[in-house]
Amino acid sequence: GEAGQAGVSGREYHRTAHAYRTPDVRLTDTSEREIDFGAAIDGQEFTIIGFIFTTCAGVCPVITANMTRAVPELDKLGGDYRVFLVSLDPEYDTPRKLRDYAQRFKAGEQITFLTGDSASVHEVLRAFNTVYLGGKKMNHQPVTLIRAGRNAPWVRLDGLVTGRDLAREVALAIDENAARNLSAAH
User: Fold this and answer.
1) What pTM does this model have?
2) Which domain CATH number covers 21?
3) Is 184 buried (19+), middle (13-18) or exposed (0-12) by CB count in 10 A?
4) Which residues face 13 on adjacent strands?
5) How many distinct structural domains can be found in the chain?
6) Per residue in 37-63, pLDDT tens?
7) Which of 4, 17, 155, 185 has its Cβ near the most Cβ atoms within 10 Å?
8) Burial label, 20 (beta-carbon count in 10 A; 0-12, 13-18, 19+)
9) Is 2 inside any structural domain?
């Protein structure tokens, strides 16, 4: 369902559910390993996706810090999960630049920073309807995507989400998916 949520920080974000199809693309992590993006997502009990770029001085550092702060809370939910932060600037954001960026935020192993060729990154943006205004990366809006299982719908959070709110939204998505699976079994 749709509901506006006001976070504890006073920031607001908007929550919607979507049936996005994960694109079949290969992206590169900070260790220069190519990963099959769809398979990496399908292998998790729950997945979180955000979009950043390393030269962004606006919302990207806040998004990255909040994702990092959410990890201890997400760990408490149990299960295999991964946070994917996809670069909006694949031409500039090499695996090494993303690695340095991750270290600056002390991002742990649960957070995977990804880049790739322009076509693959733009396919991801299109698949999740996150193409920014005028194609200018500076115009991107903060979007967080959560999927609580392979067949679950994607929960989309438009706006800045605190670490605490993110953990709460993931827990809610997991509960909603469990309820959906229970009713489907009867």
Assistant:
1) 0.90
2) 3.40.30.10
3) exposed
4) 5
5) 1
6) 999 999 889 999 999 999 988 889 999
7) 155
8) middle
9) no
